[in-house]
Every structure is written in structure tokens, then in C-alpha cells.
Amino acid sequence: MVCVLGDRNNFTILNKVWIQNKVDESKHEIHSQVDAITAGTASVVNLTAGDPTDTDYTAVGCAITTISSNLTEMSKGVKLLAALMEDEVGGGQSLMGAARTLAGAVSDLLKAVEPSSGEPRQTVLTAAGSIGQASGDLLRQMGEGETDEKFQDILMNLAKAVANAAAMLVLKAKNVAQVAEDPVLQNRVIAAATQCALSTSQLVACTKVVSPTISSPVCQEQLVEAGRLVERSVEGCVKACQAATDEDELLKHVGVAAGTVSQALSDLLQHVRHYASCGEPIGRYDQATDTIMTVTESIFTSMGDAGEHGFLAQATSDLVNAMRSDAEADTDVDSSKKLWLETMACGLVRLVLICDTLITASLPLSRGNGNAVAEVSLATS
Question: Is Cytoplasm one of the keywords UniProt gives this record (predicted)?
């Protein structure tokens, strides 16, 4: 009788452990899928900016496919997780409700971006913002909300500051348009100012979308891309104003307003980079990273200069050693950051190994490409 009771207790413990492991696994997978959905949504917003005739619909289609496929897989994962959470009061039902809300928001976006829909641009931006809100709610229902409210409030306020600064630039540009004598140049100023206002609205929408999943590098990239669109529109507005008038005072006001937009945009992106770097001073690895990116691009363009490959190996060694030094030296850093640094270091080593394989295959053995692998292996061992 004691043995039977003990076996039952052991079975109960093992069952609970299995359930908890499955819950953790499901949460991780759903979180990754939500990351992909928000990044894909931000990509759609960025890709559909501007004149519809210039839109890369192939890229838009790829982004939509990413959203749809991840939404399908996420729905399956949410059903499983809800079943595993059924012992929690209302846990499973709340999770399913949040998932349905997200699915509905995605459906609204897909309808709005159809070329034949004729929906105004603001409808697309509103639908995208709803996806961001629904994604955040879903993650919070799972206990996976990754950013605190203070960070999100600051992020949104910084995005709105860019929009407010852009609104002032639009006003200054309209002043230029009013004195422009050439109707063609006048219309160009108006069009450029309108595009500037639209690009900042897109930036705010993109910020809403990626805010809940801002730790994802892909989401950060989309926010940076939205920032680039703002930069281009500001530059276009300034150039249009300069071509339309020679009045120094008006152009001075336009220049000051454009500078304010640029500074507000810089503050926003700096805030994101600071969060992404786990609060560490930005620029810790910038030099080595820039070298790696530059040399890698050069290598794949020329398919293999042995000297360039050596530079890549050295820069990668420097970056890997810096990361591992930080991970080992700072006892106050939490385990998640240590793991991130170690993972990045391993990934960089694999990058050089891949490059070496590709280049060795395309160059004579006498050029000694294997030395690069040896350099990285020694530096990172």
C-alpha cells in the first residue's frame, strides 16, 4: 500500500513537472510567433508608405505570409497553453480571448492593405496599432510582458515628440509654399510637407506595433526603418523649400524645424538602443561590429579577398572577447544577459566559420584561408 501511494505521488510530481515544462515551451514559442507578427506588421506599414505605384508588393506579400503563418501556429499554441492553464481561474479563457482579439486585428489590417480596398492610409495605421495593443495584451495574459509601463510610456512619448516636431516643420513649409511664385515648386513643397506628416504618423503607428516586442532585433530594425523614412521625408521637405524660395528667414525657420525633428528622432532611437543593450553604455561594441559588417559585405561582394577575411576574423575575435569579458567580469549582470552575450559570441564564431567555408570553396588552397578560423578559434577558446 505504501509503495502504491509512493508511486502515485511520484507520478503526480512528474506530471506537474511535465506540464510546467510544456507551459514554458509553449510560452516561448508563442512569444517568438508574436515577435514575428509584430515585426511583419511594422514591415507592412513601412513597405506600403508612399505612392502605391512604387510599392514593392512582392515584399509586402512576403510580410503578410509571415504574419499569416505565424498567426496560424500561434493559434495552435494558444489552444494548447489554454488547456494547460485551465486550473488557473479564468487563465485559459482570458488567453483565448486575447488571441481572438489579435486575430481580428490582423484580419482588419489585411483587409485595409488590399490594393482594391480603397481604404485611407489612416485605416491601415489604426489597424496596425491595434495589432500592437492586442499583442501586448496576449503577452501579458501569458505573463510574458517584456517591457515595463514606464519604458513603453517614454517610448510612445518620444514617438509623439517626433510627430509634434514634424507638425511644426509642416507649418514652416506651408509658409514657404504661400510665397512660392512657381506653381510647380509650390505643389512640390505641399507634397513634401504632406509626406513628412504621413511618415511621422507611420512612425507612431510602428512604435505602437513593436513596443510590446521591442527586445526582438527584427522589431528594432523595423522601428529604425520607420525612422529612416522620416529622415528621408524631412530631407525632401527641406530640399523642396530651398528650391521654392530664396527668402533666408523662411528657410532658416524650416532648417530649425527640421533640426528639431532630427533631434527628436535621435532621442527615440537612442531610447530603443539603450533598452536593447540592457542598459549598458551604447557603443561598447560599435567599432568591432561596424568592422564586421563592412568587411562581410566586402567579402561577399568580391567572394573572397584573403586579407579582408583576416580583418573579419580579427574584428570578430575582438567583439567575442569583449562580450565574454563583460559576461564573466560583471557579477551584477543577471543570468539572461550573460546567456545573451555568450550566445552572441558563439553566433559570431559560427559566422566566421561559414564565411571561411564559402570563401575556401571559391579560392585556391594556397591563399591560406584556414588561418582565419584558427585565429577566431584561439581567440575565443
Answer: yes
